Amino acid sequence: MRLISGVWHLRGWFRLIVVVATLSAGDLHRWNPPMSVNGQKPNIILIMADDVGWNDVGWHNRDIATPNLNALVESGVELRSSYVTSLCSPSRAALLTGIYPFKLGLQHGVLKATKPHGLPLNVTLLPERLRRLGYATHMIGKWHLGFCNWAYTPTYRGFDTFFGFYTGQQDYFRHTTDGGYDFRYNKKVFRPKTKRYSTTTFGKHAADVIYNHKRPGPLFIYLALQAAHAPLQVPQKFEDLHRNITNQRRRKFAGMVAAADEAVGEIMTALRKSNMHKNTLIVFLSDNGATPLGAGNNWPLRGGKSTLWEGGTRVPSFIWGKMLKVRTPMIHRG
Fold first, then answer.
1. How many CB atoms lie within 10 A of CB 309?
2. What's the whole-number mean pLDDT along residues 19-41?
3. What is the DSSP string of 2-37?
4. 251: which of 54, 245, 271, 303 fits an S-S bond (Cβ 3.0–4.6 Å)?
């Protein structure tokens, strides 16, 4: 069943994840409902979509093919009043620090590739806290929090591994941006042997991380999807799922969201095959609202990305986990 919660902010995600991860085995056994299986700390998968608006997901719009995400929403906790900032870098900074962007000097806009600054080095990030608590920490996808110095990059900010790109956007197939190439595996430039759509690549890599997780401690994955940020690029098979959409740009955008949904499906399959799904907490949200001129849709909310209207700051979001024991619908007004 679907449970609908009240107002939620980016700082809340940080605090929730830290609280859950900090609980001792005894606390986990005593919690009702328990946030664990057999007193073990839960695995945590934090998924952030990019520029996906309120009307760009299947549980708000039946024209969008997101069956895997829909299933998680139906059996999890949908957050109908989940708020972020209206731009990419500020939202990511707040999510990983639990600190308002204006306190970090990141409230004015996104981090440009050529600017010599990033997320301040004097703050502790979520993966650093989780690693101290015994978590294996992995980041996949879009960083966009600075790379002018190695100290600003993911493997120096608490992540054991990084597989993705540093900048704000790139070609989904060639991984190029601003005349350069931007794809890393940890610190090294990574050039795939076969050309593959980035959303698919990220989903498969997340699945591989789950399959290869052998250590006794819990797992944390931060999957920052490129989808559905510009440019409008998607394999034909995903676009073909939306033939009922007559506008070609909108059809491509819908296909990009469907590709993200398939990536989530890869993750769920890996969790089940690895017998980890009963003790995994999944958090999903978008970094900001969609850009209507970029084929996204925030209806019925006013405005979009880069605006302070709800179309720019209120995003689709949910929490899923077997330990949540969702039985009946409930409205919490916050």
1. 14
2. 55
3. -EEEEEEEHHHHHHHHHHHHH--HHHHHHSSS-SSB
4. 245
Q: Is the dihedral of CA 209, 213, 215, 217 positive or negative?
A: positive
Give the integer Cα–Cα distance in Å for 334 and 45.
Answer: 25
pLDDT score for 333: 40
pLDDT: which is higher, 113 or 223: 223
Active site residues: 88, 144
- Dist CA 249 CA 268 (whole Å): 29
Q: Any bridge partners for residue 46, and if so which?
A: 222, 283
Cα-only R_g, the chain: 19
Any residues with CB less than 8 A from the CB of 133 and at least 6 apart, and which? 21, 22, 41
**Residue 58 and residue 65: Cα distance in Å, rounded?**
6
Strand partners, 4: 78, 331
What's CA 63's distance to the chain center, in Å? Answer: 22
Which amino acid belongs to residue 23?
A: L
Q: CA–CA separation, 218 vs 133, rounded Å?
A: 9
Mind giving me the DSSP string for 271-309? HHHTT-GGGEEEEEEESS---GGGT---TTSS--TTSSS
Q: How does pLDDT run across 180-200, given as a tens digit for each residue?
A: 999 999 999 999 888 899 999
Look up residue 300 and give its two tokens. 């019925």
Q: What is the C-alpha to C-alpha distance for residues 284 and 66, in angstroms, rounded to an integer?
A: 13
- Residue 44 C-alpha from the chain's centroid: 12
Q: Which residue is it, tokens 């050039």?
A: 191
Residues 168, 201: Cα–Cα separation, whole Å: 17
> Residue 173 in contact with residue 233, Cβ under 8 Å?
yes
Q: Which amino acid is at 64?
A: I
Q: Does the reported pTM lie above 0.90?
A: yes
